[in-house]
Amino acid sequence: MPELPEVETTLRGIAPHIDGKKIEKVIIRQFKLRWPIHPNLAQILAGRKVLACNRRAKYLIITFETGILLIHLGMSGSLRIFTSDDERIATPDKHDHLDFVFDDGTVLRYHDPRKFGAVLWYEGIAEHHPLLEKLGPEPLSEAFDANYLYQKLKTQKRAVKLALMDNAVVVGVGNIYANESLFKAGISPLRPANKLSKKECALLVETIKAVLLRAIETGGSTLRDFVNSDGKSGYFQQEYTVYGRHNEPCVQCDGLIFKETLGQRGTFYCPNCQK
């Protein structure tokens, strides 16, 4: 599933092409995604101007005067930009479920083979949407600091990796980046969250921010069908230190990388380097 860096990469790819522009029409070829698309979405958005493009956790938010469009890419979704002279506009793929056509001919196309994504219309501000209102802080924000993380973890007995992947604690630290951040911090993903010291929380906050920023810089990771708004794959997977490297040598000590299952997700770590 696309994680925060992939969604941020997508946002940065599409925003310059649609921000401030008016939608001429919306073409909907498939209404049945994870949740049904609003039956009147084409009529609602026709003639509306995009006021802003943002991201909250793994959701893309396109703001209009009367509400927001909340987009989640699910397991295999992607958003791609086509200019007016691109011949592909006229030949959509069978999994190209929506086209947002702007008044200058630009097309924002939603592609989703598995149809696990979502395109939701909400008449209100993003902060009040039921999917967003109870989320924790953004990991790259100032609100996510050592003191905040320590206070959140000090009463939690579950494994620290599970706590990091809880959106009520912090958003967007998915499986790949939790594995990588814990390795760089030298903290075992299996440790009870309440056993981390404030110093360790400070180090973990620092590594999470660094790992996510590096992933954004390299365009995210290629995971199943993820591509960015240009149709290109991400490259962060070439820098994995532990994720997906079960029984391979550790990049720091040459010991073998172990794999456990936590919360039904693969958890990779080096028992020598992570305590």
The proportion of residues in beta strands is 15-25%
Shape assignment: elongated
Structural class: alpha+beta
Largest sheet: 4 strands, antiparallel
CA(first)-CA(last) distance: 28 Å
Helicity range: 10-25%
Mean pLDDT: 92
Strand order of the largest sheet: 1-6-7-5
List low-pLDDT spans.
222-228
Rg result: 20 Å
Write the H/E string, N to C. HEHEEEEEEEHHHHEE
What can you see in these coordinates?
- The structure is a single chain.
- With 275 residues, the protein is of the alpha+beta class.
- The strands form 3 sheets. A 4-stranded antiparallel beta sheet has the order 1-6-7-5.
- α3 packs across α6 and α5 crosses α6.
- The longest helix is centred in the C-terminal third of the chain and has 20 residues.
- The radius of gyration is 20 Å and the shape is elongated.
- 39% of the residues are buried.
- About 3% of the residues have low confidence.
